[in-house]
Amino acid sequence: MTPHPEPISPLSVDRRVRLAAYAGVLAAYVAAAKNDPLTPYQIGFFLVASLWSLAAEHRFRKPLFSAPIKVGLIAVGGAIFIVFIAGNVGGSAEHFANSISRFLFWNAIVFILSRNKTEYDFWTLAIIELSLFMISGSFVQPPLFLPLLLVSFFCLFATFQRAAILKCGVVGEPAKGGFGLSLTTLGITLEVAAVVFVLFPRQSFRMEKTPGLETPEKTAKQELPQAPLPGDHVGMPRTAAFLRLTNLNKLKTDPTPVMRIKIRDLLDQPVPAEQTLYVRGAVLDTYENGEWRSDFRKQTRRDADDGTIDGWTELERNVPAGRKVVRQTIQTVGLSEDLAFALPDPVSVGMKEARYDPAGVLFYPAPPQGVVEYRVDSALMPSQLPSSPPKGPVPERYLQLPPGLDLVRMTARRVTDSLGDGRNLRAGRLVHYLTHNGFSYKLDPFVPVAGKDPAEHFLETRTGYCVHFATALALLCRSAGVPARVATGFQLHDPEEDGSFLVRNSDAHAWVEVWFGPEHGWRVYDATPGAIPDAAAAPDGAPVASIEDKKNEKGPPKRWDSFITDFDPSTQALALGEGARKLLRGLGAVARGVVSPVTGGLLAGLLLLAAVAYALLPRNRKNRLRQIVAGFKETTTVDFYRDFLWLLSKRGIRKHPSLTAREFAVQVRAAVPDDGVDYITQKFCEERYGARPPEPEERRRIDEILRRLEQVLQTPPKGSLPTA
Amino acid sequence: MSSLRRPTPRASFRINGRGWIYLALAASVAFAAALKGNNLLFAIFCLLIAQFIVTAVLTVVVARGIDLSRILPPTAVASEVFPLGIRLRNLKRFWPAFCLRIEDRMDSAGRPASLPPTPVWIPMAGARKRVRTTSYATAGDRGWARLGPFTVVSEFPPGFFTYRRVVPVVNRLLVLPRVGILSRRLLEAMLAPVDYSELASNDFQAGREEFAGLRDYRDGDSPRDIHWKMSSRLPGRLLVREHEDPRVRDAVILLESHVPKTAEGRRRGRLERAIRFAATLADVLLADQYRVRFRAFAPDPLAVDLDPRGRELETLLQELAILRPTRTRPLSELLAEAEIGRDDAVFILRIGEDPLSRPEDLRNATILTPVQMKGLLEDSDLGEKEPE
Asked: Are residues A168 and B29, on separate chains, in Cβ contact within 8 Å?
């Protein structure tokens, strides 16, 4: 006996539903795949599978994969995935994301190749899409994330709405309204999603900036951060981030405000923005075993050292000529250790006692608690390049290089061989090299290959963040005979209206300082992408960017979707506060308008107009209005029958939903012996079930009966009427 | 025990299994987003939640603002499938009625129908548009069948919610008893005792019967009876001569409908079978050119006279459809009131066992017991159960 062939699923017959589902998966994969060498092959295979499914799937009745084979194929994909992960323990997040994406995409292809699809196959594809977008949002974050997400959601709507129509048994019939309905649904969903996004109580959760996105901070004013409670993570990071460069990338994802700094000259005038870009914490001069370190000589200085007790402790007795001295007022919180921050180079500090390293590093006498405020006078580095070559001996430690580092030495030689001895020229050319040869900025954890120096690994992979750029530049400078050191601290930008700066953990930065002799001191060179403009980074250009440049050039270019990616609790509070203020202002304006005589007169006029309009309304409209006001629930779409029910309901005769019109008429006649009841019922049935509305003559008769019934029902009943 | 029935809810709205799974997925995305503070994950989560909310609203919206009505046949026949048209009018200004499942309900003679109407799917009715579709239903019993109310079920895709709404549109439909097939051989045997000697004229066979008029040709008419002259004047029509058959015979069908309270359980089933048998018998007798007189208590005296030329079986079927048993009037009263001629073929359809008072007066009568009636109906086993 031949077995009866299994009916083909409508989802395997209709092309539109499959096309929408496959397009959604493809959009999700494009969002999740980044720099994966297998992506073109994966997409090619996917397209072939999809085309086969769209062109030929409905010709086959039996499924290509039985359920065990389908599970087996997924298991094979899973095994490959596990082997890959096992072989790449410690690999980068990008590798991890790529491997998961491949695995999920493989599963999607298995489902695409399976025949006789059910709705659950599409549900599986939808879950795969969701997983791919989660990977994309967590690790890859492509600029097209939002458009691809919307495309995928639109495809999701189209898929399931088409599948629902197919469930109604219209296979092969032209679909009506599917596209428009999907588009409308997507539009409404977007509206609601935007509201949820804005209103979601994100203060209740720990918020980090999106990893990998280093963007300019908010221009809005922030309240001065308060002293943290014991155990809180907010506040100034541990000094290890600045002294040993550990976890600086984590700091850069933390938008917590930590410092407010106000800069004025000694006449209390605002300082031109030049050379106030970097607030220095520590300087690092020794590079060993792939790490920077520095031995600080914390010399104690006291207020009385200069012979007067004026609240200022002198740090440097001899301020070089030509330096401009500025005064900073610094408010900060929660330093866990004793490192203090100031513009380079500090010459005196508003503390009774301080500790100071002649390299230009300031320390508190003891780790402070809570909110701290102090003042520092700094002699800013000269903005002009030295006209004459640097004089005097070069401190050996700023030319120190560990053995090895062949790649560093070779690169420095290659870049600077053709140049003269000018330190600025050489350092500028090296900055240019690091900013123009495919080096890219990335905050992912930097995992060097075992046995290889991190700086050399960076020069090979050309990917890293400020620490790696600064390290490479400092080592390249030293290899080229230019004395250099790495400085750490914060980068300032976006001054507020009063000239102060709000500093956040995410402003933590590392840069390079080059020694130009005792007369000119140290000058800043920064090779981190975006940290200096192209012109400044030219081989013979000025190495230090102006603050105006900084406003525009900080970090990687701003994402177009930063309204999403940068939306943090502070932005949310600002947006909600602004919204609430506007709402209150609007309400206030309305309230003021209502109490004014003009508005009162206007309202009275409107009421009068409404009364006149009501009087002029036709009878049936007036009836309907009265019914709505009285809360009479509409039970039928035939207006005269509704009026009829309304008249009866006023006398307590109500039609139970289970009664037909004729059955109800029998009951009504027992209470109201009028032939008109039957006539109205008859006309109602003709219109309701026969689609024959009453003729004008019949309509007049109906109105007449209704008027008559109204009079009859208004007369007081003799005894009680039976209620239905 | 209280006999109060729980009232049917007018509308219900709930999250189904798929909805809960979706919520769990959305919660996991929210957890990941909150853990990482990642705004792109928040964007996914917000879209998921927005889709959930929009689906909830649209599930209700698409199922509201609709007007449903039925398109019914004039009558239906018990145990036979009949088409049931459903018309949906979307009263909404903007939104379509999308993917609605319409479930109808039918109570036949106070009991749920043996085969309820098939659920109907309405894929799409645009704003201010009407759609019409058909389902099929079967009424189990004769009598008034009550249709409705409708239950509209909506699961707006992807289907996280199920919204059920009762639309109180109720109609009645008269269900006629089903006419069965009677064994001709047994019928002839039943008619054999009737003496037609006085009527056995040779006139009919000799073709000297009296002309009665013209009528349209019907299947089975002899071509010899076609009135060619008149037919030629009316293109497209064939007229045949009709003659008065001098052999017209009378048959009386007496249906015992006495169901006393003490024997209700047993006699109810028998009465239903007897009613169906009466309809079948009348149909066969009319086809054999009998004038049929039907008498019963329903519970008022019911008298239906049927002429073989009038094709009036529908009248009898309608009366039989609404026939109700009598509690008090036994067969003897029916026999006393019925005017039975000496040459009438009498069929007494019995549902009780009590003896007849004067059996000698019923020489030409064929008394049929429930068991005999069951045997005579060739399709009697279809959908019936012997109550004994």
From this structure: no
